[in-house]
Amino acid sequence: IWGGYTGEGAKTVIASKAYAKISMRLVPNQDWEHITQLFKTHFESIAPKAAKVKVTPHHGGQGYVTPIDNIGYKAASMAYQDTFGKTPIPQRSGGSIPIVALFEKELKSKT
Questions:
Q1: What pTM was estimated for this model as a whole?
Q2: Are 83 and 110 found together in one domain?
Q3: Is 15's pLDDT higher than 90?
Q4: Residue 36, Cβ neighbours under 10 Å: how many?
Q5: Residue that terminates a domain, selected from 22, 39, 62
Q6: Nearest of 105, 36, 34 to residue 64 by alpha carbon
Q7: How many CA atoms lie within 13 Å of 99's alpha carbon, on the beta-carbon side?
Q8: What is the pLDDT of residues 41-100, one digit of tens each?
Q9: Three-state secondary-structure class, residue 10
Q10: Are residues 46 and 91 in the same domain?
Q11: Cβ of 30: how many Cβ atoms within 10 Å?
């Protein structure tokens, strides 16, 4: 998020413009273009009437979840257990590797 004077020191001026970069983490079956449109519509609905809102999508990818029952995950889990002597506990977390969903689609395999 940034806007107005961004140099060193204080500035007692109300900024005429403000900017923000938003990154959204999607789950499977969410379309990034649709989610972007929903975000834009919502943001426009809550912005003050005097504000000009411009949403510029840059890129997007489909959501993906690595299955914990596939051979790749099981191999990694066993390697972790062999190395550290403890069974790993799976946890879900967001990340941005948009090509992973495309790999699944084209290779017809979970990676």
A1: 0.67
A2: yes
A3: no
A4: 17
A5: 62
A6: 105
A7: 0
A8: 999 999 999 999 999 998 888 888 888 998 888 999 999 999 999 999 998 877 778 788
A9: coil
A10: no
A11: 13
Helix (H, G, I), strand (E, B) or coil at 37: helix
Is residue 42 located within the same domain as residue 73? no
Q: Please tell me the predicted confidence (pLDDT) of residue 91.
A: 87
* Run of H or E including 32: helix 32-46
What is the rounded distance in angstroms from the CA atom of residue 18 to the CA atom of residue 96? 25
CB neighbourhood size of 26 (10 A): 19
CA proximity to 111, closest of 72, 75, 85: 72
Do 52 and 74 share a structural domain?
no
List the domain range (segments joined by +) for residue 46: 1-62
Beta pairing partners, 18: 3
Q: Which residues contact 95 (CB under 8 A, 6 or more apart)?
A: 25
1 and 51 part of one domain: yes
Structure tokens belonging to residue 81: 């257990």
Amino acid 33: pLDDT: 92
Q: For the chain, what is the domain count?
A: 2
